Amino acid sequence: MKISTQKRTDVIISEAILIIVSLVFILPLILALTMSIQPPHVVFSFPPKILPRGLHLQNYVTAFQRVPFFRLFLNSAIVAVMITAGKLITGALAGYAYANFKFFGKSFSFAFLFATLFLPAEIIMIVPLFSLMVKFGWVNTYWALTIPFMASATNTFLLRQHFMMIPKELEDSARIDGAGPMAYFIKILLPLSKAMLGGVSIINFIYAWNLYLWPLIITMEDKMKTVQVGVKMLIDSEAASDWGVIMAGTVSAVIPTLIVFFVLQSIFVKSLTRSGIKG
Amino acid sequence: MRKWTPYLLLIPTFIIIVLFIYVPAEYSIMASMQRILPFGRGTSYIGLTNFLKLFSNAEYLYSVRFTILYVTVTVGIAIIFSFLIALLLVKKIPGVKLFRTLIFVPYAISPAIAGALWTFLLNPIVGHVSYFFQVLFGVQVEWLTSKPYAFYAVVFASVWKTLPFNMIFYIASIQDVPEEIIESATIEGASPLNRTWKIIFPMVSPITFYLVIMNIVTMMFSSFAIIDVMTKGGPGQYTTNMIYRLYLDAFYFQKPGIASAQSVILIAIMIVVTSIYFKFGERRVHYQ
Predict the structure, then answer these.
(1) What is the predicted ipTM?
(2) Which CA distances in Å does B153 have to A28, A243, B123, B132?
(3) Is residue B53 scored above 80 in pLDDT?
(4) Which one of A84, A199, A202, B82 has the largest count of C-beta atoms within 10 Å of its C-beta?
(5) Domain boundaries along the sequence of chain B
(6) Is the alpha carbon torsion for A269, A271, A276, A279 positive or negative?
(7) How many domains does chain A fold into?
(8) What average pLDDT does chain B have?
């Protein structure tokens, strides 16, 4: 009897703590949404409101006028899709090479790839990659925004690990049936890895959509910037106290990743914890 | 045919990593030991001069000290709280799936957006957190432009952004702790606190180690966006960490040699941190 009451208090306390913690993590977004649909006279009301007063979508229109958000969305979408696709292709090809083949230089090249984990992208971007892009004449282009990020060690390792778990007998029987290594890869291995490829894509999409430092430095014209930089442009713009407009931009910028996140959450969490990659 | 296949498969990956990671890294190392001569007369070798300059540069040394403080505080808080929250989230209580989803949301939000959200919440006029603070303590604070509040502000945003990542890993690894071990400890009379600190915490230590390393890297480098959006390294240079210092010296003050020397130091730090991980963190790989 004593134990069950104790258990019940335990559940109630845990529940209460979790409600508070969940609020801490979700409220910033809800408050931003509220602020984004607030008419200007309510923005400065004191104390600040938690629930919206009316639905004032003018802020979104203003945000999209103040900064060329349509264009920035298009840029972010192009960048995120290109990087995701590029990483998936290079990662799957290289992962297949390491998982299914024995070849001269395998461990050396693997170590060479592995060592890139020691070199964080931010350090490489700031001076040297920027100078290289200047030399290529790629400043202000989609090439600069996408191609340098189209391969990564973590992607290769993840897919290699996954391909290694697929039974070797499948490959042997495919070979006996006369399928070459590429036919086996495309017709058997990739279809069997759909869930893993999906999970990896989500992680890469969120990573690419959320890039900030690189688009900030490599684009000079507003029309080549991405939504992440657009939010910063709104905060820094002359009408910086216009919080309804700034939050309208912020909420718009976060919607695509949130959709991906909520729709595909379960696959995503699984592949994230399995991989242990940083994103 | 089969003999050449693996090489062909590796070509795209290696072109990209050589061209966009190794070539730039090598350039950084060279540039850190060179001085660009005026009027396009090329470069001259100056050895370690840039490094010696850095070590006597008060602004740079401040950014190093600030980085140490910022990383220690944010990683400490993010690790401890994510573990405690994960302990609650593995319990079989109503709504636990919903709580997990809600707390995990900031993972999908970029550091730049996290910075924008917290800039809003801490705004002294319209911000809810600022208001709450005012009600509790009776002072109105200029969070982003005054000391030491600017530091607290970037810490809030950084922890809020990073904690969910840790939490997911802790949930997975706490669930992996064999139930028999906890049951037998309970039968032998171990209190819940003892079970947590003497059994669960040591059992998940490989994950803790992994997360500490990952968080150090995140806080050292991905913090750039949070700091750029929230404080721009200010007030003054109060929140300028090493990556932000590097950015300022490279793009704002146009000192490529000094900036390259900073890059090399950061790469060296990364090599140390990552080596520690691979030397002592191997167990996690076998454990999985």
Answers:
(1) 0.87
(2) 14, 18, 10, 14
(3) yes
(4) B82
(5) 48-287
(6) negative
(7) 2
(8) 88
The verdict on A64 and A38 lying in the same domain is no
Give how far B8 is from chain A: nearest CA, Å.
9
Q: What is the pLDDT of residues A233-275, one digit of tens each?
A: 988 886 667 888 899 999 999 998 888 888 777 666 666 666 5
Single-letter residue type at B109: I
As given in the structure block, the two tokens for residue B21 are 């990671």
Looking at the fold, whether A32 and A90 belong to one and the same domain comes out as: no
pLDDT, tens digit (0-9, with 9 covering 90-100), for B114-156: 999 999 999 888 888 888 888 888 888 888 889 899 999 999 9
The reported pTM is 0.89
Residue A29 shares a structural domain with residue A101: no
B247-274: per-residue pLDDT in tens? 999 988 888 888 999 999 999 999 898 8
Across A10-26, average pLDDT = 91
Range of the domain at A6: 2-56
Q: Are residues A48 and A186 in the same domain?
A: no
* pLDDT at residue A277, rounded to an integer: 44
Same domain? For A13 and A147 the reply is no
Tokens of B86: 């994960």
Are residues A243 and B123, on separate chains, in Cβ contact within 8 Å? Answer: yes
Chain B residues with CB-CB distance to A123 below 8 A: 28, 221, 243, 246, 263, 266-267, 270
* % residues pLDDT > 90 (chain B): 48
Amino acid letter, A4: S
Q: What pLDDT score was predicted for residue B63?
A: 96
Query: Does the beta-carbon distance from A17 to B88 stay under 8 Å?
Result: yes
- Crossing angle (nearest 10°) for helices B149-175 and B205-217: 150
Which of these three, A56, A76, A97, is where a domain ends?
A56
Mutate to test the interface with A, among B15, B36, B50, B105 (most CBs of A within 10 A): B105
Nearest CA in chain A to B3: A103
* Tens-place pLDDT, residues B3-49: 889 999 999 999 999 999 999 999 888 888 887 766 666 777 887 88
Q: Do residues A230 and A69 touch, judged by C-beta distance below 8 A?
A: yes
Q: Are residues A52 and A64 in the same domain?
A: no
CATH assignment of the domain containing A215: 1.10.3720.10
Residue B44: strand, helix, or coil: strand
- A18 and A80 share a domain? no
C-beta atoms of B103 and A272 within 8 A: no
Q: What is the pLDDT of residue A279?
A: 37
Chain A residues lying within 8 Å of B10, measured CB to CB? 93-94, 97, 109
Looking at the domain that runs over B48-287, which CATH code has it been given?
1.10.3720.10
